[in-house]
Design goal:
The protein contains nine helices and nine strands. The two termini are about 35 Å apart. It is about 40% helix and about 20% strand. It is globular, with a radius of gyration of 20 Å. It binds xanthosine-5'-monophosphate. Xanthosine-5'-monophosphate (XMP) binds next to loops.
């Protein structure tokens, strides 16, 4: 049986013994990197600097949320707004794997700049066991490159600290809960963020559509769960398609883009089934999305495919 308290005490002790200089890490606000940040921070104090890179692709309110959370957890951190750089690098790119690669590379550049300025000797990573197992480390094929593995700053002359490397997700959640991290119950969110929920070119305008639609889907699903209309899905989100279709606004013909709603049940993300969401809940989402994004979105559809044959995300 995995004991979170024991693990926490031992890993903090080990890091105190081994890491004698400054350390830097990136935190996305996800459960893995936040748990890693708190653990290392408990060991090194302000010798750890945690960087949150605002790439302009995050969920609504995410940057403010992470800033507040890290402050409450007393983790020494800095928010870096690099959104202009990311959007510039993504101009004209539509291939999903290229998007991932560009976002990963851009992220490394921003991060390297910060690490150099801080003079870090150690690099902390929130890698967990499924990250390196799924990323084609052994006999597996890389289905999608996960940017937090293999996307490391190779040139950086630093030693790596990976406090969660041997843990599985449920163990990380136990550790997070024990550290008082509220993110421990959040749904998974992909590293490349909303860029892979905008099919086609990733522009500020398209990301804004994805951001609003994702916020509405999240609110409505969470509301439906609270009212006992559905069970909490494993993952639920919105995808913006480049496909335009004809609609009508008042008496006027409109020509807007399409939003896909996706909600899946899964245990580990390797396989998934779509959730049978009641039509009332779907309709509320559809009405709110088309009202909020008037003239830009005039069609909302629900994805009824399982994984396999599809994947959970659309890219
Ligand atoms: P797929 O779409 O492959 O996703 O069925 C399985 C799970 O992984 C998440 N995902 C990612 N996570 N970087 C990540 O950190 C990525 O590039 C990435 N792509 C997919 C996805 O949200 C789902 O939970």
């Amino acid at each position: 049986m995995f004991k979170a308290e024991k693990f926490i005490n031992e890993i903090i002790e080990e890091m105190r013994r081994k890491a004698d200089g400054k350390a830097i890490m990136a935190c996305s606000g996800g459960v893995d990197s936040t748990a890693a940040a708190v653990l290392v921070s408990r060991a090194l104090g302000d010798r750890l600097l945690t960087i949150y890179v605002d790439n302009g692709l995050m969920r609504k309110g995410e940057t403010e949320y992470v800033d507040r959370m890290l402050a409450e957890l007393k983790v020494n951190h800095k928010i870096v707004d690099a959104s202009d750089e990311f959007f510039e690098a993504l101009i004209g790119v539509i291939d999903p794997e290229k998007k991932r690669k560009i976002i990963g590379e851009r992220f490394i550049r921003v991060f390297e700049r910060e690490a150099k300025a801080f003079g870090a000797e150690y690099l902390v990573q929130g890698t967990i066991a499924p990250d390196w197992i799924e990323s084609g480390g052994g006999i597996r094929d890389t289905i999608k490159s996960h940017h937090n593995v293999g996307g490391l700053p190779e040139k950086m002359d630093v030693k790596i600290i990976e406090p969660l490397r041997d843990l599985y997700k449920d163990e990380v959640r136990k550790v997070a809960r024990s550290l008082g991290i509220e993110v421990s119950e959040r749904q998974p969110f992909p590293g490349p963020a909303l860029a892979i929920r905008v099919l086609g070119e990733v522009t500020r305008e398209a990301v804004e559509l994805a951001r609003e639609a994702n916020a509405i889907v999240e609110e409505e699903i969470q509301g439906a769960v609270q009212r006992n209309e559905i069970q909490m899905p494993w993952q639920y989100f919105a995808v913006v398609l480049p496909v335009k279709s004809v609609g009508v606004q008042g008496d006027v013909r409109a020509y807007g883009r399409t939003i896909v709603i996706r909600a899946v049940e899964s245990v580990d993300g390797m396989t998934a089934n779509y959730v049978r969401i009641p039509h009332d809940v779907l309709e509320r989402m559809s009405i709110r999305i088309t009202n909020t994004l008037k003239d830009r979105i005039n069609r909302v559809v629900y994805d009824i495919t399982n994984k396999p044959p599809s994947t959970i995300e659309w890219e």
